[in-house]
Amino acid sequence: MKTEFWYPPGFPRAEERFLQRCALALASLAGFIIFLCQFSTILRDLQTALRTGAEGLTMPPLPALTAGCWIGFLVLALGQGVLAAAHYLWHYQGGRSIYRMRTLPQRFELARRCLAAPAAALGWCVLAAVAVAVLCALYYRVFTPAGLLPAHWLLGGALC
Amino acid sequence: MLNWNNVYKSYWGANRALDSVSLSVGPGEIVGLFGANGAGKTTLLKCALGLLRYTGSVTLDGEPITHRNIARLSFATCEHSFFPALTPAAHREFYKEHFPTFREKRFDALMDFFALPLHRRARGFSTGQKNQLEVTLALSQGADYILMDEPFAGNDVFNREDFYRLLLGLLEPEETIILSTHLLEEVQHFISRAVLLDRGTIAGDVTTGELEERGESLMDFVKSSLHYRGDRVLKTLEGLDDGEEE
Lengths: 160, 246
What we know:
- The complex is a heterodimer.
- The radius of gyration of chain A is 22 Å and the shape is rod-shaped.
- In chain A, helix 1 packs antiparallel against helix 3, helix 1 (13-51) packs parallel to helix 5 and helix 3 runs antiparallel to helix 5 (109-143).
- Chain A has one domain.
- Chain A is mostly helical.
- Chain A starts with 12 loop residues before the first helix and ends in a 17-residue tail after the last helix.
- Helix content of chain A is 64%, strand content 0%.
- The longest helix of chain A is centred in the N-terminal third of the chain and has 39 residues, at 13-51.
- Chain B contains nine helices and ten strands.
- By secondary structure, chain B is α/β, with parallel strands linked by helices.
- Helices cover 37% and strands 24% of the residues of chain B.
- The longest helix of chain B has 14 residues, at 127-140.
- Chain A binds chain B through residues 9-12, 93-100, 102-107, 109, and chain B through 49-51, 67-68, 70-71, 73, 75, 77, 79-86, 90, 94, 98-99, 121, 123, 130.
């Protein structure tokens, strides 16, 4: 099925898809950078403390370091609601093509064209967030010195 | 048969746009829907299409109008229901895809008749061309009942007259037109029946055959049914003159 079937007729879908991809890339990059900043700051502090003779110190578990990473994805997810509304309002631009859409024999055509692309973007958003989470976990595991790695580093105390 | 049964519609609980309107339109009729601004013409058409909420019922051959039979109705409106960002060629594809009964030959013939550019986005059209595209799409959809709401506002008179003539030759015997317009004199030889709306009620319903038998023109029928006050201009001017003299 052509991609145009998932957008309101005549909607600038290429531009929307480009902006969605840019926003997703930015959210992913921002998420990972936020994690890196928190990770490196804490690691530096811990290493300084160890040099002064402190003992029994470990890195906070991964969830504590990724807490702020999801803000970009959250904004993007909320933006999909705005986008769905924009798709609907598109049918009021330059006329009332909403009449045409509401009188089509295909009952769900209007809903499909307004909601499909935002729903797909939401799905990509979740996938990207999972990918960033995996990347953060790998980085945490690889770059945390063995002596500073807590016992339940992946999920913290959540499952203990 | 398209039936409005005791249809009642009010906007924001205030004015009654339609007050228990009952009307039946059969196959093959060409019905002119007349009335002053705000009489309820547009509301009547939009209720049939399910574009407005109302009480009462509208049925098509006894069945309520749903997505199953909505394709049997088409709508041409002066508000324009086409997609401004699409070209007529893209509209043709869209209609072919959504309406199995789409009349492609008729679409092409009307595009030629109106000399509309096939590959230019509709948003760049003049108002007259937009009306022509709107009417072309409504007539080509393959609907049995074609509802038109002031479709020619902004078109020049020559285009309109030619179009009426073309339309009479174009329509199949079972195709029905319901045309809401103020252009009474222009359409009087084109329609087979006139329905008058006044403040949300049917004020008159007559076939042009009955009018001919009575020797009455459509304009006279409309004026008498709507209690037109021919002396109101004179009275207003006299009132103004009296005021200035004092």
